[in-house]
Amino acid sequence: MIPPAAPAPRAAAVPEEIIRARAYLLRTVEPPSRDLVRLIEQHGPVEAADRLRRGAVPEALLERAAARRDTDTSEADLADAAAAGARLLVPEDPQWPGWQFAAFGNARRADLAPPVALWARGPGDPSALADRSVTVVGARDATRYGLHAAADFASVLARNGVAVFSGAAFGIDAAAHRGALSAGGRTVAVLACGPDRVYPAAHAGLIERIAATGLVLTEYPPGTTPGRLRFLVRNRLLAALGAGCLVVEAGTRSGSKRTASDSLALGRPLMALPGPVTSAMSVGCHEMIRSRQAELVGRPEDVLEIIGRLGIDLAPERVAERRPTDGLAPGTLAVHDALPARAAWPARRIGEIAGVAPDSVRIALVELEERGLAEYHQGLWQRPARRSGP
Amino acid sequence: MIPPAAPAPRAAAVPEEIIRARAYLLRTVEPPSRDLVRLIEQHGPVEAADRLRRGAVPEALLERAAARRDTDTSEADLADAAAAGARLLVPEDPQWPGWQFAAFGNARRADLAPPVALWARGPGDPSALADRSVTVVGARDATRYGLHAAADFASVLARNGVAVFSGAAFGIDAAAHRGALSAGGRTVAVLACGPDRVYPAAHAGLIERIAATGLVLTEYPPGTTPGRLRFLVRNRLLAALGAGCLVVEAGTRSGSKRTASDSLALGRPLMALPGPVTSAMSVGCHEMIRSRQAELVGRPEDVLEIIGRLGIDLAPERVAERRPTDGLAPGTLAVHDALPARAAWPARRIGEIAGVAPDSVRIALVELEERGLAEYHQGLWQRPARRSGP
């Protein structure tokens, strides 16, 4: 369906049997599956594949694999993918974005399992691209305002070395990819269909352009067609691969909300673009900002600041420097931690809780007050009701 | 300059000597003056006026009054005001919005002193109007979008019984007043000139319409012309009189920011209307939302919710009901208060700080976790990093 692109690079270091095993596992158990991830962690991919073939795996996993485990199409899958210019990227490959996918390990939701491998097409290094990146999502039926903003933000971000991840859908997705491409920047499409397919078909040219300079990723083996569930499942990869997630336009019931909530669940900062209150396409963004789930971004520079501040591409010291409690002496910090948020206490009680002497407590409280970290009313101390920062 | 309106109501209960004294004080000391407010608190208005005339007041106050204290024009001022249809509203009057102005008592900024009286024109009861109210401010050079939104919000709010306070200026102010008037609702203009003047002159008709059904207020005696400083000083009254402050459009250096910061300093919730990120007139609003000073409002209903939640017109129970910690047993609340925000502690340590037994701490922590008020990671507990509410 897609003509072969440039020869796909392959990490020579990864043994073929691992590639084969992961290709088999990827097709045999429909993602996401924490049970499968656990099985691989315990036994390694080759042994895990063997156990699955033999049926020597926990009952729940066996049931999920029942329909496919007797047929190993990994050789054909790898050949079909290669014919479409795609390789199988595995966690054993140095280009695997392991840092990003580590966030799945802290997520509570059972559906937030990492992928066991990814089909990849294009010259981009997935790990390097994800290192400084933003995921841009939004409505398919976007307004001109939204399309313009998505392209403009993506273009400025790409010019600043940020890779723009999106889903290649109509509307905001396509505008974001195109904005990055127009700036000569890097962009990555994460699809919900096989690497030999394009969806939507009208974006065959766009996806080809993305694959030519950036990267097209998918969890689904060759021949897979997209479906509603697969789009939802795909969204967790978009959420994980971006250092932050920007929602450009979203109606009240937008699918972008799923990617947004996945991003939050994975600890990624969520950003939303405001728009006219008269536009139905901005209602979802405004809701996310109102509920404090998302930060409002008015300029691409805001995005750079947020992914720089909270992102994974900066040294931890930078993050620490921006905390309002930084530079506080340990005693003062203890007093800060003891300050009640929903009550107001006399200094004496705070001192008791913090384990700090009365005189030192008062000095600490005054310092905290100067920094806007404590408030004093009628003899009682408390945390400020409103924080002026995130 | 302005034809007399309907006969101004006068609270018969307030002795004339108090009215005269406050008219004298209002003209003699240019507001705001905390020293003057304190003098009146100590001695009452009549004795305070007498002391000021005699020069028996603290040095600082004497200096500020030096230029005017020898001339008592209170009789003429009251006559001129009456000729323009205005009365002097004093704190001794039951219609004085004392509840609202009490906020000045908690403010730290020295320039946030309450007025010692107000010239009032129109049939509205200032106290009743301020009880359920919102202050709407914004750019003079507003966009069509902003003007439309200001009128629309004001109209819906007015229809819901909320009085719309604004400054009668060009742009957002006028649109807000007109929106309220168009809905047959109540609106109040707070001016920075004498009650016998109109500013801007082009708004003579608008101000007349406001005075006919609502209220026109000013701190400045008859004949006073507006000036840059007086607009700034006036803004604190707008901030105090609204149960909340809504900024509709504001550029980066907008004067509305002053009213916004006065509102925050007086403990009023600040709201901002988002707009297209491509509009310079929305930059100020977006900044306020980003910095968490203002809540984003997308619909008039959002404003109703916020002033209902935090406003002064609702019973305190309603406010309390909306706290996420409501309904928690005292022990659980103590555990909540002991939860660290910037660290993560084992349950044992939290129990020590909260003074709650180990078994009860664990039960409390699980309850808090269910409510989204605590988070657990690898044996340690902490407050959730992001709050989903204000």
From TrEMBL, chains A, B:
InterPro entries the record matches: DprA, DrpA_SLOG
Single biological process term from Gene Ontology: DNA-mediated transformation
Pfam assignment, any one: DNA_processg_A
Signal peptide as annotated in the record: none
Protein name: Smf/DprA SLOG domain-containing protein
Start and end residues of each Smf/DprA SLOG domain: 90-306
Domain of life, per lineage: Bacteria
UniProt record similarity statement: Belongs to the DprA/Smf family.
Organism: Pseudonocardia autotrophica
